[in-house]
Amino acid sequence: MESEEKKCLDQSKQGEKTPIFESAQFSKTYPRYYSTETNKQLPSAEISVHDVSYSIVTGSCLRKHSKRILTDVSGIFKPGLNAIMGPSGSGKTTLLDVLAQRKRTESLEGFILLNGQPFPQNFTFLSGYVAQDDVISLALTVQENLMFSASLRMRDCTHAERVRRVEQLVAELGLDQCQHTTIGDPFSSGISGGERKRCCIGMELVNQPPVVFLDEPTTGLDSSTAFSVISVLKRLSTLRNSTFIITIHQPRFSIYSQFGRLHLLSQSGQTVFHGPANEALSYFEQLGYVCEDYYNPAEFFLDLMLQSVQLSAFSPGFESQQAPIKTLSLVEHTANQSNIKDLVKCFRASELNKVLHDECETVLASEEGHFFDSNVKFSRSWFTQLHFLTMRNLKGFKIFPGKVIASWVVVFLISAMLGFLLFDWKYDKKGFENINGVLFFFVVVVVFGNFECLNAMLGDREIFIVESQNGYYRVSAHLLAKLLGDVIPRQTSKITVFALCLYFFLNLKPSIDSFLLFFSAGLLTCIAAVSLFVFVAAFTGRFGSAAALLPAISVMMIFVAGFFANVGTLPPVLAKLKYASIVWYAMSLLTTSQFRNVEFCDSQKLVAENGSEISPYLCERGESYLDRYSVNYSFAGCCLNFIGLAAFSLFFYVLTYFSWLRTARSRK
Fold it and tell me: Exposed, middle or buried by CB within 10 Å (0-12, 13-18, 19+), for 620?
């Protein structure tokens, strides 16, 4: 055994610095991609990896350094079930993302080919990607989620054909019993973890992609459920001649036996083995590492690479009295050298790697192959995407009405409390102050009450990232659908309840025009505030950061609005900042709705110099109060205030669009 290891090390030292594909020349002219027929299964996909290395930049802005994740990784992933294994931190997910074209090419060395040709720019539209976490709409049933995917990803086919495709997937994935069950959240009943995982997989299979990537598809599943998921993948890869590439950490033997090809990564992100999974044990036996009977090969490989246990090397007569057991520790076996480095060297010098080298050279030299339509992009039109996204958002109100009802209850209680405190108020000086305070409190509640949007937006962020990168829809369609199917209905219902309750409990100005102005101002204020909250959530991507920024921004808006501190008392520079405040536009419209054409009369009598009474009451028109706060209460002034709120909303929704666009296109 020691002589075999010495021979392996000697061979590896001779070719250690020589790249595996150093003779490969990547300068040939590639033929144009041909167009595939619509809705027919695309050609089988074979992905070849040629000396790929990948690095990331870590550290602070002042002290940045590069960290190598993958080093000289090579391999060929053929139709069937391909598994990428390795210890935690070995770069399994990074390699999967590199294969799926989801990493920045600036940090990538080497090259990757699809059927011997460069990847088309639209590869994400031709492939499927299932994230490690089950990213799926919780408000829809299994069938509705699959139908949503089919409606947006299957092109040029009828509704009946999409329905048949969904029914086929339900049968293939074993989802018959739960197809009409809502996915559910942690606080409501729904489907099981295995059913949710299979539903996520089904959403990526509706358009029959030639290659599907799955990141840790067995995470969070029990051993039986994990085996059923992998069995489904194995069966589908065989039936459709598709390429399934998965990352997996430590599968049990029944799962490991399903793999067609295996790629082992060391802790340093280097290839330890690549080839047929059923040849892995015999390969390591040739190096002197024998997996004992009844021992899980996957655990054996991880233990070998991590050097965490002592391995036993047995001769062929395990538990035989004639064959003595010889135990060698990894430290002794590697002769005071790094075991990982030795395994990498041994693979480079192995016969398997020579075969891999020849296959890759053949791929590079080939001028023929199956090509994919490079013009294929979104399957459905922008308006179709908008329709289905809006309907999905509206579905959430039906399934989870508690969030909407809770906001109604809150504004009802606030209105009732204000009505109790200001019961039987009058149109006098104190009444003006009270109603002005109520309007200011109304604006503060409308603005600050949108923190619920942070959870909603950040909760949907992962769904948006996965679906947009997988080619479901355009970012603009998602943003407008969020506005039409979520923000406007939710806020309209809340403001309607709030306005009606305030009018009822406080007996505000009894005029249809005043109520409509009050309601419209409240609704547009709420939409403008939501636009600010949504932008901050999209820009930061973290609840903690958004929750820290938004109160500070809101307080500054309140301060410069002129109703907390009169604009006339502020420096001229700060006084101009009122036009950047939602509170200024909102209070201008709300005070106009309640104070215009109204008189506030005190019981104090006016007395002339001769002692005679001039007027029994001292009255002041509401317009004088509005002038005091520099409010333009004319029709033109109201229009300008509405335009200001609309422009504020549009400005931040445009910024949100670019933030989401950056997020959707980002590759770490």
Answer: middle
8 A C-beta contact, residue 657 and residue 480: no
Instruction: Indicate if the pLDDT at residue 369 is higher than 60.
Output: no
Distance separating alpha carbons of residues 51 and 73, to the nearest angstrom: 5
Provide the CA 274 distance to its chain's centre, in angstroms: 32
Q: Which of 248, 255, 284, 476 is nearest to 381 (CA)?
A: 476
Q: Return phi, psi of residue 71, to 5°.
A: -135, 115
For residue 572, give Cα distances in angstroms to 552, 584, 637. Answer: 22, 16, 21
Tell the burial category of 482 from Cβ atoms under 10 Å away from its Cβ (0-12, 13-18, 19+): buried
pLDDT, tens digit, 9 for 90 and up, residues 122-163: 788 888 899 888 888 888 899 999 999 999 988 888 899 999
Tell which residue, 208, 251, 298, 235, has the closest CA to residue 80: 235
Tokens of 150: 């089919």
The string of DSSP codes covering 490-520 is: HHHHHHHHHHHHHHHHH-----HHHHHHHHH
Q: In 3-state terms, what secondary structure has residue 258? A: coil
Token pair for residue 315? 């001769």
Task: Provide the 8-state DSSP code for 449.
Answer: G
- The dihedral of CA 631, 531, 183, 173: what is its sign? positive
* CB-based contacts of 611, cutoff 8 Å, min separation 6: none
Residue ranges of the chain assigned to CATH 3.40.50.300? 2-127+209-365
Amino acid at 108: L
Cβ atoms within 10 Å, residue 631: 25
Distance CA 198, CA 179 (A): 11
Structure tokens at 520: 């419209």
Helix, strand and coil content of the chain, in percent to the nearest 5, comes to: 55, 15, 35
Distance from C-alpha of 214 to C-alpha of 100, rounded to nearest angstrom: 10
E-assigned strand segments in 323-478 = 326-328
Q: What is the CATH number of domain 2-127+209-365?
A: 3.40.50.300
Is the Cα torsion angle 411, 416, 417, 421 positive or negative in sign? positive
Per-position b or e across 123-142, b if 16+ CB within 10 A of its CB: bbbbbbbbbeebbbbbbbbb
Residue whose structure tokens are 């054996």: 300
Residues shown for the chain: 668
Residue 96 has pLDDT above 60, yes or no: yes
Bridge-based pairing state of the strands 311-313 and 606-607: unpaired
- Exposed/middle/buried for residue 379 (C-beta within 10 Å: 0-12, 13-18, 19+): buried
What is the per-residue pLDDT across 412-422, written as a single tens digit (0 to 9) for each?
Answer: 998 888 888 88
* CA geometry: angle 212, 216, 219, nearest 5 deg: 135
The three-state secondary structure class of 596 is: coil
DSSP three-state, residue 73: strand
Work out the number of other CB atoms within 10 angstroms of the CB of residue 258.
18
As a whole number of angstroms, the distance between CA 493 and CA 410 comes to: 13
Contact 305, 340 (CB under 8 A): yes
Longest dimension (CA), the chain: 134
CA 457 to CA 463: how far, in whole Å? 10
State pLDDT tens for residues 545-579: 888 888 888 888 887 776 666 666 667 777 778 88
- Distance of alpha carbon 149 from alpha carbon 153, whole angstroms: 6
Continuous segment of H or E residues that includes residue 658: helix 635-665
SS3 342: helix
Reported in sequence order, the residue ranges of 341-410 that DSSP labels E, i.e. its strands, are: none
Report the pLDDT value the prediction gives residue 368, as an integer from 0 to 100. 59
